[in-house]
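Weekly puzzle thread! Below is a chain. First person to post its structure in token form gets bragging rights.
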Amino acid sequence: MVVDYHFQSELNSKYSAICKACTLAVMSIAKIILIVLGVDLTWFVIAALMDHIILALFMFFAVRKLGSLAFIKSFSGQHAIAMLHSAWPMVLTAVAALIYMRIDQVMIRNMLGFYEAGLYSAAVKIYESWIVLPFIITTSLLPAIVKLKQGNDYEYRRRMSQLLSILIWGSVFAAVVVFFVGEHLMVLAFGDAYKDSAAVLSIVMWTAVFASIGSLSARYFNAERMEKKIALRTALAAMLNVGLNLILIPMYGIKGAAIATLFCTFFANYLMDWFDKDLRILLEIKHRALFSRGIWVEKK
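Winning reply:
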């Protein structure tokens, strides 16, 4: 992970992608061989461990080949302590996000049963396959965003708005496409037994619009050193999600859980900005991205 972040800081994420692709290819072949041989389950656990070991080796050889290994020697205990101190909101955010993204499936299983939980989980899998794209884009561009922040403020806001516009309208396009082909997509991916997941998928995919906004908002908070705000809004969204699920799941079934997730994502990644005076610039960036396609006119 350290080498991966080093590549991101140097805007060389392509090397991380190559290493991960090579690891995936090697281990996929290895796992197919294990399946053909019919080996014990223990071997698949070992294979899961080897995923990380082989990726680490590929990363090591890549950073050594590029002559970037010297960054490891520049460790500073003082900087490490400062980073750990500033990182605790992100740790809380990770825990809250885990609750936020999984609690609906747990509640559906307990309130409606395993069949409905399976339908809902299948729809969420399609959603997660899409939403990983905005996350990768914004994470990879974080070093560039930080550099823009240190330079021209107008250019920083303009580029942020343009990037967000691409993420928003890309997700809108994906949601519209899924609305029309959702049932065929679910049958193709999981079989006829999951075609009833299409209605849930159509709702959940609109969550991607606000999740994309949240992904760029998180990078904005990183650049502005406002990590505590990420933890606060994620924790509030997690609690709100539980409350809405308790109300909407008995009323609308798995569609109710999808509606709850959609509203909570809207609440956390857009609505809360209206109540925080520190986020007026971020709110303007979002409005420019949504209504003006990221167009800014520089003030004279």
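Puzzle host: Confirmed. Bonus trivia for everyone else. Residues 83-291 form one domain.
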